[in-house]
Amino acid sequence: MPALRVIKRDEPWRGGALAIVLGALAFSLGAGILMLAAQGKSPVQGAVVLWQGTFGNVFALEDALRKSVPIFLCSLGVAVAFRMQVWNIGAEGQFALGAIGATWAALTFPGLPKIVLLPVMFLAALLAGGLWALIPAWLKLKLKVSEIITTLMLNYIAILLLDYLVFGVWKDPTSFGFPMTPEFSPAAILGPIGGTRLHWGFAVCLVAGVGLWAFFRFTLLGYELKAGGEGARVARYAGLPYGFLVGFVMTVSGALAGLAGCVETSAVLGRLQPSLMAGYGYTAIVVAWLARLEPLPIALASFLLAVLRVGVENLQLEMQIPAAYGMIMEGLILLSVLAGQFFQTFRLGRREG
Amino acid sequence: MDWGILVALLAAAVQSGTPVLFATLGEMLSEKGGVLNLGVEGMMSVAALAAFLTAYFTGSPWLGFLAGGLAGACLASLHGVICVGFLGNQVVSGLALTILGLGLTHFFGTPYIGLAAPGFSKFAVPGLADLPVLGGILFRQDALVYVSYVLPVAFWFFLQRTRPGLAVRAVGEMPAAVAAAGLHPLRLRLFAAVAGGFLVGLGGAYLSLAYTHLWTNGLSAGRGWIAVALVIFAFWRPGRAVAGAYLFGGVMAFQLRLQATGTNLPSSLLLMLPYALTVLVLALSAWRGRGADAPAALGVNIEPEG
Amino acid sequence: MDQLPARPPRLALPDAEPVVALRGLTKRFGKVLANDQITLEIRPGRIKALLGENGAGKSTLMGMLAGRLVPDAGRMEVHGREVRFASAREAIAAGIGMVYQHFMLVEAMTVAENVLLGQEPGFFLSPRDMERRVAELAAQYRLDIDPRARVGDLSMGEKQLVEILKLLARDSRVLIFDEPTAVLTPAETFRLFEALWSMTAQGKAVVFISHKLEEVLAIADEIAVLRSGKVEAELRPEEIGSKADLARIMIGKDVLLEVDRTAAEVREQVLDIRNLNGLGLTDINLDLQRGEVLAVVGVAGNGQKALVEAVCGLTQPPKDTIFILGKPWREYYADPDWKHTLSYIPEDRLGLATMRNKNLVDNMLLTTRKGFRSGPLLQKARAVADTRELVRKYDIKPGRVRVLAWQLSGGNLQKAVLARELYREPRLIVAEQPTQGLDVAATEEVWRRLLDARDMAGILLVTGDLNEALQLADRVAVMYRGRVVAQFPVTDRDQVDKIGLYMAGVTDF
């Protein structure tokens, strides 16, 4: 039997990362489109509609660019934490807290001029997201409680907190019972760039992305974070302040997700309402892993997954496909990338003799 | 407090604790074999749908129960292949499984929202049901709850008193020793993951067949994550898992009762209770027990040689 | 050091058919040819010693025999029939069992569970029944062990007994021991040898893998010397004139493994341990001056690890017990300087001293990063230049700075760690098993570098290799069960002769 066996590569597979991601995307798209048949829809028509609703349409691409902003910011945060092997899966909740923080500022100081109010909102969002993420960090460091579970539980709590606010104390009295805050004053709105449909959130992304890249590349603290990812023992060997680093990455991670929440609330919705929570925090995890935690690939992957979301919305509209179709695709993509990354370090060879 | 109300509340605690108990034991089995599966939430939810659809179309709740288990096992085998076979990161793969599972449930389940399937109803166990207090709490339940009474004992017996159980424990502690003993570490891990997934699936099936008889999306509502937390709380021991599951069942039942009796507290704050309690319980158990007893090779993949 | 036991008179064995025959076995790992056309025969009732340096290919060869590795070419025969093992299971079924250097035991389970793991079919098991069977087996071979004990609570010697019991329970006909004495006291070594002789007397074939010449000469019936993946020679002990002859065959040139040692000037105190109790240690009192080497020896698992981890800041000792460079532990570790301080060269080179998936520059920065900071920034260009210089000076192969840590061989990785730590010009060096797993050339270089470093530092050398301790140290401290049972200068020959007894905890004579 010409059995195949697994052989460890002597050198990592150069260019493998890209090949794996492309392969995973192709596989997941193919499998996902075939799945439409299970719902009695035509896969061919599905593929056409998906194309028309994404790359076949400038308007859709603009929409995808807008959606990629919160995904990108959350994913940067996720990547910062994952790099240090801190499994922050609470981007969704930190995103909600950021939105809550920003909304608090917008509702409390509606009279402030834009140049003051927007920074106050940003600050409130950064703080709210960062401090929310500090809770699991503290529990991890002081009590060795797994951050995986606490960050997740805090997601549920954060979303319920948001519900509580928009159904209760912050509810717009003129909303006919709909759960939402009053519309923000114009001073609290992050406006469009020039005459485009793109808003200034892009500038925030650019600053955050470049800033983080430079931080990891050029600073001592950035190096220490990368080294800290090798675990607590290595950190202690090297005299790294492990506890501080964990707290720091969680705070930065939460603050970035909070920033996303602020941008999304201010620039896209103009008020706080439950529809804000569209699962960007979970998509961000898919993106971060797809991009191997590097900022530039995160930007590309954010865009790709945002395109997917827009395409799925179009499918929903044109072919009545449930919105959950997007989650299936994201799950498939992540699973196939995980399987594919095996070939980064191993290859198959023929068994001799 | 009135005894009747207390008994009713505790009976409700047992009922809402049962799906969590199935799922906790399932995750525990997987982790005993060294496979951390964070996909419980997604598996439960898919299993709930599979159970519902099977019962709906065949008319047999027991077939539905079985289908739930099989659905859980299917998703778990996906996780198993990716982690055991392809050395994928167990944390991330479990998350992906949850995303996929929730997506599948909503995708295929949406057309059936509001429909009813034949499920399990409560019945009194002759003799036992008339026991004072305990009878009312434990023995006026549905058939699946009675199954769940046997399960922790069977679980313990399997791990401690059978050869496959011994091997599963060993592969979660030190896969190299298992290989040196001439057993197959990869197969054992896959077995633990899939069998654990089956139990998780049974928990999901309980949600749509006994907890409610109507289909609605989002039945799992975080129970899968609570199960993952309970495994840690239980120090990987089935006895403590029972205590933990009923504690959470109690909180959920209490919270529902509060809502039903109409309180001034907003429902969103009440709904936070189980999640906040999870964090609190984990913190307390970590503080008391230092979270020892985790299988030594939990979450660590087995690299191929040669 | 104690004399090893003399071999009892051997039974005259007819030239029995070999149980196992290896014909032209070859195995490659990437570019490395680990085994090249190995041909060997293993006969019942004999102890075959496989002698070779680290990296000569002994473990690879036995890995193939035990079914863990698949040969690239060549064949194996058991009782004259060709076999191909796809897994350890098949090797075990063929009667070949192996005691690994790193025990393959489940610490959280009992002795009985470990011994009977994967044994015979059947579904149910009864702990009482298992314990009874293991107790009987142990009694039959006069091995002293409690079947109900948790393996994690056992000493290294006892764990080895569990490994042997595993093979006996499986009726293995060929028993392979990979460096079995590395973790044993001299007395335990003696007991192991007796056990091996009694097993061969019952017709078992034993393969004894080692690089210790004395042991091989004491125990083997046949010696096969492995060098660079090839069988260099096959001999009988009586054909060998002296240890030096054997060493020459093993290494391929004259090596005496001795270094010139001139005394260095002893200066100020750099380490002071006073009444250290806790962390599994009892009443530890040690001190070390700049310019001297203090060797801490003992059988693995007698508290050396706890001592090293406390001194090196991995675990926190009780208050006012450890003083480093004159400062109390807490004060020193509050913010240690990167230069002129403590350097730790750990046993775990790939998991602790270096980051396996990072290149040499990043790994160099791990402990020296504070020397490359300017404000919040890191001077990467200077770090690259300095790393390049170190790679050249220490001849770290393959000579590139972008190579990842896991891609280096053991010797080159250790040189890289040493280069980095000496770059810090430490005042105190803690070196833990610094030459474990290295070949002779690398060992010599590490020794030379450490001796040179005495000019700037005091060296705490923690080693299980007595020869290394005696070659390098000015003073020796022997640890047993968390205590320092003896401490003396190497010039005290009387005491040095008793090290073996001290290692076994015997202190009253």
Describe this structure in words.
The complex is a heterotrimer of chains A (353), B (306) and C (509). Chain A is an all-alpha fold and 353 residues long. Chain A has a single domain (67-320), classed as ABC transporter involved in vitamin B12 uptake, BtuC, CATH 1.10.3470. Chain A is built from 14 helices and two strands. Chain A has helices at residues 16-35, 43-52, 58-83, 91-108, 114-143, 147-167, 201-218, 220-228, 232-237, 242-269, 280-290, 295-319, 325-340, 342-345; strands spanning 4-8, 346-350. Chain A has a two-stranded antiparallel ribbon with strand order 1-2. With 306 residues, chain B is mainly alpha-helical. Chain B has a single domain, classed as Orthogonal Bundle (ABC transporter involved in vitamin B12 uptake, BtuC). Chain B has helices at residues 3-32, 40-58, 61-85, 90-109, 134-138, 143-161, 163-173, 175-180, 185-211, 223-233, 238-261, 267-289, and strands at 122-124, 140-142. The model of chain B has no long low-confidence stretch (mean pLDDT 91). Helices cover 33% and strands 24% of the residues of chain C. Chain C has helices at 58-65, 88-93, 111-116, 127-140, 156-169, 186-201, 213-219, 243-251, 304-311, 329-334, 349-353, 360-368, 380-393, 410-423, 440-453, 466-472, 493-497, 499-503, and strands at 20-29, 32-42, 47-52, 73-78, 81-83, 96-99, 174-178, 205-210, 222-227, 230-235, 269-278, 281-289, 293-297, 322-324, 327-328, 342-345, 373-374, 377-378, 428-432, 458-463, 475-480, 483-489. In chain C, strand 7 (174-178), helix 6 (186-201) and strand 8 (205-210) form a beta-alpha-beta unit. The longest helix of chain C has 16 residues, at 186-201. Chains A and B meet through strand 1, helix 6, helix 11 and helix 13 of A and helix 3, helix 4, helix 10 and helix 12 of B.
- Name the helicity range of chain C: 25-40%
Number of helical elements of chain B:
12
Cα shape of chain C = globular
CATH class of the largest domain in chain C: Alpha Beta
Helix content of chain B: over 70%
Q: What summary fits the major beta sheet of chain C?
A: 6 strands, mixed
CATH topology of the largest domain in chain C: Rossmann fold
- The CATH architecture assignment of the largest domain in chain C turns out to be 3-Layer(aba) Sandwich
Q: Per DSSP, what share of the residues of chain B sits in E-state strands of 2 or more residues? A: under 5%
Estimated radius of gyration of chain C: 24 Å
